[in-house]
Amino acid sequence: MNKTKELFTAASMARQQAYAPYSGFAVGAAVLGSNQKIYAGANVENISYPCGTCAEQAAIAAMVADGCTGISAVLVIADTKEPITPCGACLQRIKEFSGTQTTIHLANLEGIVRSLPFEEFLPLAFNNKEVKK
Ligand code: THU
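# tetrahydrodeoxyuridine complex -> structure
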């Protein structure tokens, strides 16, 4: 299976495990690390609503916990006609580990609808090198 198909399968399977009893909106994400491994995640909501976490956040955390800090691609999937895009906070999380080659795939249950370079999502992301002294 090619990596993009694998990303779709991993994100779809994770989405099926989403814990979203409050919004009823299940999201799955899968990240292709620079090590060519795939990490999946789902949204995990909480009765204290702000404690909920996004699918992308979970996938990125799994990647980092496995020792990888580079993102080649991200796929996000939800059951919508128009595919969803990562939220603003998740774009910043992706930014931390992405480069000029990072691709974002937007999918619904039928398959990938659009694939775009990450840079199109957040061209002026907060990334000031002077923050790191
Ligand atoms: N959500 C994600 O997991 N990823 C996104 O890119 C957008 C939104 C989740 C958060 C919340 O659990 C639910 O979708 C509805 O906003």
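# post-check
The beta strands are 27-33, 38-42, 71-78, 103-108, 111-117.
Residues 14 and 28 are 5 Å apart (CA to CA).
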